[in-house]
Specification:
single chain; about 400 residues; alpha/beta; 16 helices
């Protein structure tokens, strides 16, 4: 057990209310690899903690039993030690371990985040495909080459840092642990026993955890959502800690609001699903939508969720860049591109009611040319859904000219 890292989490937890985000590292890594992400989240007022799994980091001299169940027991020990509401975040092999730990403590784990996850049932790759992984022990250079193959855009300094972290893991531990995550766990052949909210995050440029593997993971959970991080591969928490922090802080807020309201309230998750029902789950019945692309506000859940579904489908890409929370208000900064190539930037302000549902949305698009394009595009797509005069169509342009 890594006492210094646990104490770090306890110290943060003493300063902040709400859940503790407990991070579980993957193959060849240690709790150290979460440092940048933890700094980002501390700035957002969130408590965090991590650990070194047996055989890794500060525990290279105490491997003991090497299995997913044994690793999960390490995580459960931290959960029990912290004695707080927990959101578990597991990366790669750590996702397998985090799920097993969440199943062991469902009353304590209020949310589960699986980052570039290996399916609990394993990869089940043939021996010839696994041989390069099993031969990584003790060689920082080979690890750097392997990591670069899974995260093409990662910087040299980061590669050297990660290679140094993993080089301390004994070669015999590397061989055995590679077999552990490849073989997986028997529970992975069934739907997950964890029923809480689950966020599955993929690095878009990760060639290992591809779309098919993500689908294997997502399909096992009853209450799941999926999000992508652009310009990131297998180590998205190292490559894009700021963008991942936005997803995690929104998810942490939504799990607390969900506990109060019994509803899914994750705004970024709704954009990932791009469906009216996902937006509807987040909204209060009398929600008001204001936006720079609207001539006048829209009111009511049924209408707003249809507009947001159509808006999400205009985007070819959408990245959430930063977020902050102040009382009932949440501020989300984003950038996007339409299928036609038009680029957007903006800020969304969400105001939630006492039950955690979104009661007011204010969306600010820029630049003006992009906002005009977006307004006219939505006006055409929603002409049979939204009453005339809300978007910048010909009638609305005439009305504006008359007012001025």
């Amino acid at each position: 057990m890594s006492d210094d890292l646990i104490a770090n989490g306890e110290k943060d937890g003493a300063r902040h209310a709400g859940p503790v985000l407990l991070f579980v590292h993957g193959f060849l890594d240690s709790g150290e690899v979460w440092t940048r992400l933890r700094q980002e989240l501390s700035g957002k007022g969130l408590a965090t903690a991590t650990l070194d799994l047996r055989g890794h980091g500060t525990r290279t001299d105490e491997p003991g039993e090497l299995s997913l169940d044994a690793f999960a027991r390490d995580v459960v020990a931290i959960i029990d030690h912290l004695d707080r509401e927990i959101i578990l975040v597991g990366q790669s092999m750590g996702a397998q371990i985090a799920e097993l730990a969440a199943v062991s403590r469902p009353d304590r784990v209020s949310g589960l985040v699986l980052l570039t996850p290996i399916p609990l049932g394993g990869v089940n790759a043939p021996e010839e495909a696994m041989a390069p992984f099993k031969e990584l022990g003790g060689s920082a250079e080979r690890q750097i080459q392997q990591r670069q193959a899974l995260s093409h855009a990662i910087g040299r300094d980061d590669l050297a840092w990660l290679g140094g972290v993993g080089a301390s893991v004994a070669p015999e531990v590397v061989r055995e642990v590679a077999e552990v995550w490849n073989r997986g766990h028997e529970a992975g052949a069934r739907p997950s026993a964890y029923s809480g909210p689950t966020l599955v995050v993929r690095g878009v440029s990760d060639p290992f955890v591809d779309g098919a593997m993500i689908e294997r993971v997502v399909s096992r959970f009853r209450d799941s959502m999926q999000a992508d991080i652009a310009d990131a591969g297998h180590w998205a928490h190292v490559e894009q800690p700021g963008r991942l922090a936005v997803l995690l802080s929104t998810f942490a807020y939504s799990t607390g609001a969900r506990a109060r309201s019994g509803a899914a309230v994750d705004w970024t998750g709704a954009f990932a699903e791009r469906s009216a029902s996902s937006f509807g789950d987040a909204l209060a019945s009398d929600v008001v939508l204001e936006a720079s692309v609207l001539v006048k506000p829209l009111r009511g859940r049924d209408l707003v969720k249809r507009v947001m579904e159509a808006a999400s489908q205009v985007y070819a890409s959408l990245s959430f860049m930063d977020s902050a929370t102040a009382g009932a208000k949440q501020y989300v900064e984003w950038e996007a591109a339409a299928h036609e190539g038009v680029a957007f930037r903006g800020v969304t302000i969400l105001t939630r009611d006492a039950e955690g549902r979104i009661a007011h949305v204010a969306i600010h698009h820029r630049p003006m040319e992009a906002a005009i394009f977006f307004s006219k595009t939505l006006g055409r797509r929603l002409k049979d859904v939204v009453p005339p005069g809300h978007f910048l169509d010909t009638a609305a342009e005439t009305q504006l000219q008359e007012r001025t």
